[in-house]
Specification:
Elements lengths: L1 H24 L9 H10 L2 E4 L1 H9 L4 H9 L3 E2 L13 E6 L6 E7 L3 E9 L2
Parallel strand pairs: 1-5
Antiparallel strand pairs: 2-3, 3-4, 4-5
Length: 124
């Protein structure tokens, strides 16, 4: 029995290392399959619609759409406990950014063709 485990690990360890290095060189990762990454990627692929109060708050905070896309959405994390991901037809999400020491919180609806941003606030 011990001999079988030796042969098993003799093949397993080099095999795992080989797969790890091959996938790592190709830039493959599993992060795109996690729920947080999927919501953010789908949102970034949609047209953005801003509610009036969201646009006003962005002007007040001196933020633009590029900063919203590149910093807030791309570096944020979705708070699934405060989101309604099962809402039909458009799930609503609460996102905080950046992930470490969040400064901004936004809420938005992700519909089939557009993402509608409803609120943005600065966290203390």
């Amino acid at each position: 029995m011990l001999r079988k485990f030796k042969f098993y690990f003799l093949g397993l360890i080099p095999g795992v290392m080989l797969v790890f290095f091959i996938l790592n060189k190709k830039g493959a990762s599993c992060t795109g399959y996690l729920p947080n990454s999927r919501v953010i990627a789908e949102t970034l692929s949609k047209n953005f619609i801003y509610k009036d109060n969201f646009s006003a708050e962005m002007r007040k905070l001196n933020l633009n759409e590029k900063f919203l896309r590149d910093s807030i959405l791309s570096e944020g994390f979705v708070d699934f406990e405060r989101s309604n991901a099962q809402k039909k037809p458009c799930p609503t999400y609460t996102l905080q950014a950046p992930e470490d020491n969040p400064k901004y919180e936004i809420t938005f609806e992700k519909c089939e063709k557009a993402a509608t941003f409803t609120t943005i606030k600065v966290l203390k």
